[in-house]
């Protein structure tokens, strides 16, 4: 498998990133380098091997359903790039 | 004063030879005299630190009992939240983010009356092995300012080595505590996955991330670990396991203890001089009566490949939250909401972060998911099984922490794969989720060498015991850089 500039453009779109032509070229080379290295995993026989999503098995971790104060709205909105009347302000998304 | 350990300082405070305010002022002066050269701090909270120190001095004056950490200056990696201070992750995208809450570890430190001096520099979003990826400034190695301190917790390691804090916290996803500890000649512990709550740690790869302490020696490490470990209902992956009294593992005999030496970690890629230092360390253990056993971990050579798939995949998902909407940087000009996401992320993230997001997005995309992500999860199982089997035969495993001593700034920054290889001995530990500690174990050309001790799940106590036994026999943890 080899990554092309076209793949980089497609993945960039999925990741919501944009690059200059020069950057696309560099990322294509970098990704190919890393993916070539990762190819070594194909040597490993994983037939009948289960996946591990984590190292340490935790059973369902549930908290008691108790009503608690959440964060103060104003303190959270201080970090918002744009806000108005207690809401985060965003560009218009519905015509 | 700044060359002393945490436990030495505790003794001085207890004897009344120094007040917490004097100590804090002294440390702040130390920072202002050396940090221009080191670059460890991104933010200093002088007022908060001095107020806390004054409060502890008053407690002591009233004859109240105080905790071991009370009144002693420390600092925190800038991806861990401290209420009211910035948490930038050394990224432009979070340059102005002020944390509205405390991480669980921060809460614990505050309960222990720790004096929090400020926030420490790092590779952007903890992605890197040299701390060159900080969007703000580079961190330099206190032993040689032309060299890197390691990464990603380079600021945390350098601050302890240079006496700019008595201990610090960092985070470790693939070696980000142990590798910089090794390169800066300090002790760094990555606990078992789940031993310390990750609540308030900005997520990089959630199944691998773990917070841990940097200290000057193993004794200090035991004290800090005890203060910050334990279950937290805000982190569903934190373990409901009792926290041990880690200090009871200090000053213990290790006769008959079995130490495994994986032959795979002493092959190609390991610098010859580093190998000699690690072999000397093994000889120290043999002299102390430990049983040295060669073992084999054949799956470990696949760990780095597994790591880069899993860590990047998880990162691409975790970092999707940085979209310029609710917090963080928002581009000034954009056409519509999608363009806002694209422009804010493209301008806000640095190259290494983008590289990992791209790799992770690629590995998770339709058609490649099975070949990369799922394959890596299966090999992860085999690596976990291999460690479990190894710990049926041995009590700890000993390896070098890093294949080389600190490298020159700029030496590896153009070749991502070569940079990634500096984590070859530390990465498998995060994949398996076991604990590991890096301890100063020698010098090559005046630069520190670290050895890594790996323990069984939740057996940090044995790491403290085995590490402390080495420390009592050798002088490496007592060396300080001349800066």
Topology of this protein?
The complex is a heterodimer of chains A (95) and B (483).
Chain A: H1 5-14, H2 21-38, H3 73-77, E1 83-84, E2 87-88
Antiparallel strand pairs in A: 1-2
Chain B: H1 6-14, H2 20-38, E1 41-44, H3 46-61, E2 73-77, H4 104-111, E3 115-120, H5 154-161, E4 168-172, H6 178-184, E5 187-190, E6 210-215, H7 218-228, E7 258-262, H8 272-287, E8 291-295, H9 303-318, H10 337-348, H11 351-364, H12 370-393, E9 396-400, H13 416-420, H14 427-432, E10 436-444, E11 447-455, H15 460-473
Parallel strand pairs in B: 2-3, 2-4, 7-8, 7-9
Antiparallel strand pairs in B: 1-3, 4-6, 5-6, 5-10, 9-11, 10-11
Helix pairs in contact in B: 2-3, 5-6, 7-15, 9-11, 9-12
Low-confidence stretches of chain B: none
Please state roughly what percent of the residues of chain B sit in beta strands, choosing from under 5%, 5-15%, 15-25%, 25-35%, 35-45% or over 45%. Answer: 5-15%
- How much helicity do the residues of chain A have? 25-40%
> Taking all residues together, what is the mean pLDDT of chain A?
91
